[in-house]
Amino acid sequence: MDNQFFKNIEKKTGVNMNDVFELASSLQNANFKDEKTVRNVIRRVSQIANKPVPKETEDKIVKSIVAEGKQLDFGTIAQMINKK
């Protein structure tokens, strides 16, 4: 992809694309059946997006991913964060 493309995304969203790439890389071999791993991912996404996630919302996301086997991706987390 074009470097300017990512710079435009950073300007529009305020999200550092290097942080996003680092997070994506760390997710490749992560164990999403492990509650601690899922909580760490949620907190990292929250930090990158600069949007705090209340404990109750975090618990719901963790439950849906670990216990219910829901797919973990940025869209799923973003959707759940925005439901609060």
Your description of this structure?
It is a single chain. 70% of the residues lie in helices and 0% in strands. It has helices spanning 3-13, 17-27, 35-49, 55-67, 74-82. The longest helix has 15 residues, at 35-49.
Give me the Rg, rounded. 13 Å
Total number of strands = 0
Uncertain ranges: none
Largest sheet: none
Strand content: under 5%
Oligomer: single chain
Order of helices and strands: HHHHH
Mean pLDDT comes to 81
The global form is globular
Number of helical stretches of at least 4 residues: 5
- How widely separated are the two ends? 34 Å
Number of domains as seen in the coordinates: 1
Secondary-structure content class: mainly alpha
